[in-house]
Structure formats: C-alpha cells, structure tokens
Amino acid sequence: MSAKTVKDIVREKYGQAALRVSRGGSSCCGATATTDGCCDPITSNLYDPTQTRALPEEAVLASLGCGNPTALAELKSGETVLDLGSGGGIDVLLSAHRVGPTGKVFGLDMTDEMLALARESQRKAGAENVEFLKGEIEHIPLPDNFVDVIISNCVINLSADKDRVLREAFRVLRPGGRFAVSDVVTRGDVPTEVRHSMLLWVGCIAGALEESTYRSKLAAAGFEAIDIEPTRIYNVEDARGFLAGEGIDVDPIAAQVEGKFASAFIRATKPAASCCAPGCCA
After folding, report:
1. CA gap 40, 126 in Å, rounded
2. So what's the pLDDT on residue 140?
3. pLDDT of residue 156
4. Number of alpha carbons in the 13 Å side-chain half-sphere of residue 80
5. Phi, psi at residue 233, to the nearest 5°?
C-alpha cells in the first residue's frame, strides 16, 4: 500500500471526524455532543474531567488519541512544545496551560477541517501562546533545534514512513529535548487480516509498531534513554467491535489478538551534545 494512499485515507477520515464535531456530534461515533463515552475503547476515557473542564467542548469531542501525553510529559513553564498531528487541539490547549504565557505550543496537522476546528477552539479558549501549522509529520515546517518537547497522541502509527517522522522529530528538538508521545504498540506478531485492513490505519491499529521495533527506530534516529511504558492493554472483547466492523471474524484469531495491542507512553531524549552538522563533533 503506497504512502500516498494511506495519507489520503487518513486525511479523509479525520476530516470527516472534524466535520461531525463541528455539526454537534462526536468524532468517533457520530453521537451527540451530550452523549458520554465513545464507541472505540482506544479513544475513550483518556482525560480526567478536571483537566478538560475549562476547554471548549469541540476540542474535547474531537479527541481521537490513545493516551494523555500532556499528563506524562512533565511540561515546564516557558518551554516550547510541538504536538505532531494535533487534530482538534485538545493536547495543544492543555500544554499551553502547562507551559504558561512564557512558553509556546505548536500544533501540526495536515487536515484542513481539523485545523479549522482547532483554531476555533483556540479562539474560544483565549490561548495566545498557541499556533497551529498546516503540514505533514514527515516534513515538519519548523527549524532545526527549535522545540523543547515533542508530544503526539496516536498519530505516528498513522504514518507509512515512521523512520522519516522520527528523524524529523529528532531534527527539530533542541539538544537535550524530550520526545514524549502516546501511541499504540503491538506485543508480538499480529494477524495478517488486521495488517491488511486499510481502515484500521485510522484507528491506530494496522500501522502499530512492535515494541522492540519502535525502540530500534528511535535509536536509529539518534534518540537515547528510550522507554516504552504500556498504559492500557487491549483484550479480545476490546478488539471485537472494530475488527468485526471490518468484516474480520474475531473468534478464529482470538488467541492471536488477545493482549497483542497496547496503548503506551513512549519516552526518549535527544542527546545533549548532539551533532547538528558534518564535522561539528570533530
């Protein structure tokens, strides 16, 4: 499957999710804005209501992540943060509160509808230390050594060129900068039926990296102090709904699916003495 095809489908599905929210529904299952929960066990119940109480409702409803990177990234006042695949802006707005008026948070997204939704939420929240950028996570439109922290919420899995994403993340981080993302990982082999379902890319599943592969790719990009901490492990019943929706008979592959998918918090650091140009460490 070509990278362009994956990207087109992701853009279409996330654009549709943003439009549903703009019309008063939820991003995940078309429920009304007053409906609690979500039909997808991966994207539901990720944020403490005390965190989101002050945010515009649209930003909360548009969340399609698999974790809460802002709760684990240990953001500090005055830091510059980049959210890869910022969607409706929930993690950007939460981060903006944490870094304060002396900090800055950039949200990067390729979907026009999500960017429009995020900018409207920014306006409603009065967040002046926020900027949303249009672009792709494989080609980050920021200079080298520019941000202190990179966060992301179940988006890197959607890329067909994860090596490029991680190299770009390394490039824009300052020396000593932190990579702190939520993503879905696999734990061992995954059934071919799941890998070949294109729509499951949008649910963070088909593109999920195996834990050891994720570590290897981060190391190859130059990161150190790599840690992968599972935060939610999914069982067969969690998987049944979205697999059945793709025409996959779950029971015959139940043993292969059980416990194979997990949301995880993934940490890594750019070395403080990182080389930035040929010969700079000579």
Report:
1. 30
2. 98
3. 92
4. 13
5. -105, 130
Amino acid at the residue 263: S
> What is each CA distance from 259 to 154, 188, 190, 230, 233, in whole angstroms?
18, 9, 11, 11, 6
Half-sphere exposure at residue 5, Cβ-oriented, CA atoms within 13 angstroms = 5
User: Angle at Cα 104 formed by Cα 102 and Cα 110, nearest 5°?
Assistant: 170
In the chain, the percentage of residues whose pLDDT exceeds 90 is 42
Question: Could you tell me the two tokens for 62?
Answer: 């548009």
**Is residue 152 within 8 Å of 124, Cβ to Cβ?**
no
Q: Which residues contact 281 (CB under 8 A, 6 or more apart)?
A: 273, 275
In the block, which residue shows the tokens 């890594």? 268
Q: Measured between alpha carbons, how far is 200 from 184 in angstroms, rounded to an integer?
A: 12
Domain extent listing, the chain: 3-269
| Residue 189 near residue 202, CB atoms below 8 Å | no
Cα–Cα dist 147/176, whole Å: 10
For 212-238, letters b (16+ CB in 10 Å) and e give: eebbebbeebbbeebebeeebebebeb
CB count in 10 Å sphere of residue 152:
26
Distance CA 7, CA 196 (A): 15
> Is residue 65 pLDDT above 50, yes or no?
yes
Can you tell me the mean pLDDT for 103-111? 95
The pLDDT of residue 39: 45
Burial of 262 (0-12, 13-18, 19+ CB in 10 A): buried
Taking the whole predicted model, whether its pTM rises above 0.85 is answered as: no
**Hey, which CATH number is domain 3-269, 3.30.230.70, 3.40.50.150, 2.40.420.20, 3.40.50.720?**
3.40.50.150
Quick one: average pLDDT of 38-65?
A: 54
